[in-house]
Amino acid sequence: MKTALTIRHVAFEDVGTLESALLKTGFELQFREAGLHDLSAIDPLAPDLLIVLGGPIGVYEQAEYPFLTDEIALLRRRLEADLPILGICLGAQLLAASLGARVYPGTKGKEIGWGKLFPGARAQEYPFMSSLLDESVEVLHWHGDTFELPNGAAHLAASDRYVNQAFAWGRGALGLQFHPEVTAEGLERWYIGHACEIAGQEMIDVRTLREESRRKAGPLEFAASQFWSLWLNGLSP
Questions:
Q1: Distance (Å, rounded) from C-alpha 231 to C-alpha 224?
Q2: Residue 237 and residue 235: Cα distance in Å, rounded?
Q3: Residue 52 contacts residue 13 (beta carbons within 8 Å)
């Protein structure tokens, strides 16, 4: 059986709808918890797929969170072997950093809430993106940092606020700044875990986020199921 090793930074930001897609595609899920497990002990070549999820810290906070340095080293070694990687939110930022791109606090404020994606310059070359780029679909954004597009990466998606929302690199590395994996039910844990962050945003409140999620998470789940299936089935063995 194929293995999908997942690095989590906070428990409530999990694989969501990606889990069922992985199981259907013949993957066994394994997890490592950043800050608890020794990430430097992971063999970068062993998993068939490496997944790095989101979290509320910045790539540039390596002095405060030394495991970030281990994650970047792990990603660099795996990229050298051109093996499949999925980075979501913080995971995408770590992937960009491991490819030499700058990661920094966004200058247009935090992007929290639902919004549409727009095709990147090379989106048409990657058919798995089509369902998420459909005009009827909105995705969840939850980040304050952004990144430059790494050299050699294919730009796949942008939003109204931040241009680099998705990129592909090599045969199977994919970075997603947004969150295609979320469900309306699962987001109830986010509202608790990110309570301080939400309270600090003048134009955002939990009730509005909850109502939007009830309307928009269903279409995203359907689109994400198509996205996950196409991407996973297209990974090089």
A1: 10
A2: 6
A3: no
* 179 part of the active site: yes
- Owning domain of residue 38: 2-233
Residues 6+ apart with CB under 8 A from 36: none
89 flagged as catalytic: yes
The one catalytic residue in 9, 141, 155, 179 is 179
CATH code assigned at 14: 3.40.50.880
- Dig out the tokens for 140 from the structure: 């969840």
pTM above 0.90, yes or no: yes
User: Which residues neighbour 163 within 8 Å (Cβ) at sequence distance 6 or greater?
Assistant: 155
181 catalytic? Reply is: yes
* Candidate list 13, 143, 181, 194, residue with the active-site label: 181
Choice among 13, 89, 141, 155 that is catalytic: 89
Q: Per-residue pLDDT tens for 135-192?
A: 999 999 999 999 999 999 999 999 999 999 999 999 999 999 999 999 999 999 999 9
Domain count, the chain: 1
Which residues, 6+ apart, have CB-to-CB distance to 126 below 8 Å?
154, 156, 168
